[in-house]
Amino acid sequence: MIQLPFANRVEAGRLLAAELVTRKLQGDVIVLALPRGGLPVGLEVAKTFGAPLDVVIVRKLGVPWQPELAMGAIAGGSFQTLDEALIGGLGIPREEIDAVATRESAEVARRERLYRSGRPPLELHGRTVVLVDDGLATGSTMLVAARYVRSLKPRKLIIAVPVGSVQACQRLRREADECVCLATPQPFAAVGEWYVDFRQVTDAEVRHFLEQDHLPPAAAVRPELQKQ
């Protein structure tokens, strides 16, 4: 039984990792986290599995005259999803959509350079990918991230979060081989209400998490993982 609220993202990540161990994941595992809050959670999962850790950066494509309203999203610099019904209903010209997408693609590329410090993205083809965030409210950002990862042909995709709304977790189950939500409390207003410490993660911390070596000596790997 998961006791809420979590003390912080580190505790949540350790509990999430423990649950994932019971799933007896097969194949080479890669952990991908959504910055910035997903990184401390993802780090604990990566350490448990002795797996590499990387990021998936998703940016909203805002309506040109109402940027807070999403007409789509972009991930990985070029992967795009568009709300064609909204775009058609508002009559947004294609050139304006392209201008917003170009600007947000540049921001994705900037953040990837900032976070990875020149390291290339990890190869996902044929790997078991665990896609992690600190929680799911609507799940819209995770949805785009999952579809982007799917486009790179992993062997298996697992979405894993410590906490999420019932609706978001159900929605994401259709986008992955598995969706692991440790807790789905109701009512659910925001992810932060389920953490005692939910301070903002900085860019410097993201770089630090990604620079750490998550590959433990063989003797340090949990016995249940060695048997896989």
Description:
The chain is α/β, with parallel strands linked by helices and 228 residues long. The protein has 2 domains: 9-57 and 123-226, Rossmann fold; 59-116, 2-Layer Sandwich (Ybab, Chain: A). It has 8 helices and 8 strands, in the order αβαββββααβαβαβαα. It has helices spanning 9-21, 38-49, 84-90, 94-116, 140-151, 166-173, 203-211, 223-226; strands at 29-33, 53-55, 58-63, 66-75, 79-82, 128-132, 156-163, 178-183. A 5-stranded parallel sheet has the order 2-1-6-7-8, sandwiched between helices. Helix 5 (140-151) links the parallel strand 6 and strand 7. Helix 1 runs parallel beside helix 2. The longest helix is centred in the middle third of the chain and has 23 residues, at 94-116. It is globular, with a radius of gyration of 18 Å. The model is unreliable at 216-228 (pLDDT under 50).
